[in-house]
Every structure is written in C-alpha cells, then in structure tokens.
C-alpha cells in the first residue's frame, strides 16, 4: 500500500520499452511503500490498541507493515523479471489490506480509508487493469481471515483511531496532488515541445508551412480590417535542381539549411520566415511597406551569394525573390501568394539573382480607380 502513486513516472505497460525501465519500477515504489505501510501500520496499531488486541496481532502488524516493504524490495531486486515481481508485490499489498479489515473487526473508518487508498494507488500505477487484478486477492484474504477468526464487527472508531487516520489521508492527498501537479507540468511542457515541432521545419529550423500560413492569413486580415500593410517574400534558390542532380542530395540539403540560416538572420523579430517547400522559402513581413521589404529582400539575396558550402566550397548560390505588398484585391491568402509567386517568376524571367516586386496589371488598376459616367447623367 504505497502512500501515493508515482504518477509522474508510472510503471510501464507490458508493451513499453526496455529492461532498464522495468528495473526502475521497484526502486521508485520502494520508498513509497515504506511510507504508506508505515502510516497504515500506525493506523492499524491504533485500532488494535482500541480493541485490546495489540498483543494478539502485534507481531503480524510488524511483519505486514515493517518487514514486508523490505522483503518486497529484495524479491523484486533479485528477481529475473523485476517488473513482474513488483506487480506481484503490489497485489500482495492489496491482499494484506484485505487481510487486516476483518482483523480490525471491520472498524469502519480505517477499513474504508485503507481500501480506498490502496485501490487508488492501483489505478494510478499506470499498469493496465491492475486495480481489477488486485480485487480477488483483497477479497479472498478478507474472506479467509473472516472464516478463520470470525471477528465480531465493531464499526465505531475512537479518538486515537481518528487521529491516526488523518496522517494517511493528508499525506496521501498531498503526495497525489504533488505528483499530479508535476504530471500536469510535464504534459504542458511536452505539449509546448510538440507544438514547437509542429510549427518548425525540421531541416531548416524555419516555420513550417502551416504555421507561416497562419501568420500570413492574420497579416492579411489585419490589412483588410485595420489597413495595416504587410509584404510577402517568395525566395527561390536559382538552378537548384541541377545542384541536386550533379552533386547529390547531401549538397542540396546543405544548401537548403544554409539559405534557411541566412533568411533567419536577416529578418526582423516581428517577421515570420518559413519553408514553402523544396527550395522555396517565404517571409511574412509584418507592418511593412514595399520599400522596407525590398531592402530586406536585397539583404537576403546578397547574403545568400556569400554562402559557401562545406561539401562543395566552389559552388556559388544565388536566389530570386518575389515581393508582394498587401492589396485590396487579395481577399484570400492564395491571392497574396499568387502575387508574390508572379513577382518571383518575373525575377526568374529577367535573369535570376534579383528582387522583383509585384506589379498589378494596368487594366485592373484603371478599372479599380476610374468610373465612367453613363451618357446623359
């Protein structure tokens, strides 16, 4: 009857990994069993004292609550399978509690507390259906003791029994609360790490596509609702396919990582740089006009030209960059991306290794700005 389950590091399930993890189970439970059995032993001793049975069953209480935790530790430590041995020990814990319920003459308060604490520990051990497996042993031991001793039920509890019940309730509750708090903190930290992994492109360390698209959509929404400008940069490594074909994917991967580092170092804190796919990158320039974004794009282009790869130091990288500022006709993110992509295509068409800003067709611009009055009005 451990005082509290180790919910932060539960024993592994049957399918969980490794011998090392299984060997650690009994070591974690050992101090908890000493504490739980110690408090339970004091509680049972107070009941035996109330019923003037301390001399009759005192030796059994010592064996159950003082010696048993150390015997259980040794049984698990020197077992060929410590994990299975510790499961047996946990089942014996429950059987001991079942044994002592009739020996305490079914004294109501300590019986309920000990059964509840022991069963809760089985739930919280992390071992599937362990609480269910413990019930036959607990009930069987209680039935056997009842048949042998035939105790006369004495349900009432004196003041001393109540006093010795409080420590196991308080300590167990605090231990469970602390373990639960640590578990919550651990889960929250793992969730943050998983969210960070979801938002990050593993190869470059830039934002993954889903994350930068969220930021781009938010910037486009702010433009339409608050007239806050923003710019989108589409960055493409020039002639990247021949690099992969001629020098292999190792060089290609190194080039992508190097360009990712350059982009990350050139953007502002409020900007969001991400991976579009393949050798294409995106930067969402928040609260920026074309002039600001173009200066950033030129800085990125110049820095990419200085990159030297470890695998192929003679290779010179260049990039083409398309730039599109938010416009009223961009109702969806796809519209904004298409404009930046058109600007990128224009930079490629003009000879690569340059920055090109999106230019709206003149007809569309005239249609947006002019209204021809009808004759006779």
Account of the protein in words:
The chain has 377 residues and is an alpha+beta fold. The chain has 2 domains: 19-198, no CATH class; 209-359, 2-Layer Sandwich (Alpha-Beta Plaits). The protein is 64% helix and 8% strand. The chain has helices spanning 19-50, 54-77, 82-103, 108-124, 130-149, 159-199, 209-226, 240-247, 249-266, 290-305, 333-349, 362-369, and strands spanning 230-237, 272-277, 280-286, 319-325, 355-357. Strands 2-3-1-4-5 form a 5-stranded mixed sheet, sandwiched between helices. Strand 2 (272-277) and strand 3 form a beta hairpin. Helix 1 (19-50) packs antiparallel against helix 6 (159-199). It is elongated, with a radius of gyration of 36 Å.
SSE topology sketch:
Elements: H1 19-50, H2 54-77, H3 82-103, H4 108-124, H5 130-149, H6 159-199, H7 209-226, E1 230-237, H8 240-247, H9 249-266, E2 272-277, E3 280-286, H10 290-305, E4 319-325, H11 333-349, E5 355-357, H12 362-369
Parallel strand pairs: 4-5
Antiparallel strand pairs: 1-3, 1-4, 2-3
Helix pairs in contact: 1-2, 1-3, 1-6, 2-3, 3-4, 3-5, 4-5, 4-6, 8-9, 9-10
